[in-house]
Amino acid sequence: MTESEIRKAIDTCRKGANVKLEFERPAHLRAKYRGMPMFKRTLMTIRVGVDHDTRIEVQAARENGDAPAENAGLSGCEWLVEGLLLRAIKTGEIQLRVEPSINANEKPKSVYFVREAGIETPVNKEEYRDILLGSEFAVNKRSGCFNLGIKGILSLHNTVAAVDEDETEAEAEAAN
After folding, report:
1. What is the pTM for the complete model shown?
2. Are 125 and 132 in contact (CB under 8 A)?
3. Rounded distance between C-alpha atoms, residue 54 and residue 122, angstroms
4. Which of 23, 92, 119, 157 satisfies CB 3.0 to 4.6 Å to 19 for a cystine?
5. Average pLDDT by consecutive 10-residue portion of the chain (176 residues)?
6. To 10 degrees, the CA torsion angle through 24, 48, 45, 92?
7. What is the pLDDT at residue 172?
8. How far is CA 130 from CA 45, 95, 113, 156, in A?
9. Buried b / exposed e along 77-103 (16+ C-beta atoms within 10 A)
10. Main-chain phi, psi angles of 41, to 5 degrees
């Protein structure tokens, strides 16, 4: 998504509400397979606009000394929209700050696929165990906030990223 698309999407989300997010990223591949057009697409329920300092886990960590008494902010990033959008200072990448759904029944659903000549073919990640890094098979027990680069976000809430016409034409030409 573009920055303007993501801003429109977050404007439609109530703070702390559970919303659907779909994003994709290149699969983490072993060195000799880098460049292979394999991707991971994930659909999950997240919450946006949650005030980090008011989370029960954060307050408990501050009380027992596991976290600093005061929020020191994020290093290497600057807020564009407080609690929602950040920009990485070194790369300029814009990121969305999200938190997994608090609903225990809402598990992320991921699919791996290979994209060649604009055609996406789903693959079983177990069949690619020798190609993928071990991190692709690790159990994710993420419970706190995390950042996602907005370029990988395909849809947020009811907003879908626009298709880049130049990219679509290039894929069609490659297929011919």
Report:
1. 0.80
2. yes
3. 40
4. 157
5. 91 87 96 94 90 76 80 83 91 92 83 94 94 89 82 88 55 44
6. 10
7. 43
8. 30, 31, 16, 33
9. beeeeebbbbeeeeeeebbbbbbbbee
10. -115, 130
